[in-house]
Amino acid sequence: xxxxxxxxxxxxxxxxxxxxxxxxxxxxxxxxxxxxxxxxxxxxxxxxxxxxxxxxxxxxxxxxxxxxxxxxxxxxxxxxxxxxxxxxxxxxxxxxxxxxxxxxxxxxxxxxxxxx
Length: 116
Prior knowledge:
5-stranded mixed beta barrel, 2 helices, alpha+beta
């Protein structure tokens, strides 16, 4: 009984952190699309969103893609987005100035992938 209660408590305490990590699309300026070209630094192929850090314009930018199943269904693979490879992203910048872009389209390994 005590084990069950402790397990439930651990789950309840973890939920707010997970909810905080998953940001809404309202944080991005959808009124103006931006294009960035860079070189892939780091890839986090995980849910709730795949994230790719690229070096572009003297900064490290985080590129936020969709969930793993959606992105994979559109044809993007882990081989397409390996560190050191070039990446072009078209999307929307965060309104608060954080170097992050929500991808609408990326060009990786010679193929164009629409995220929506």
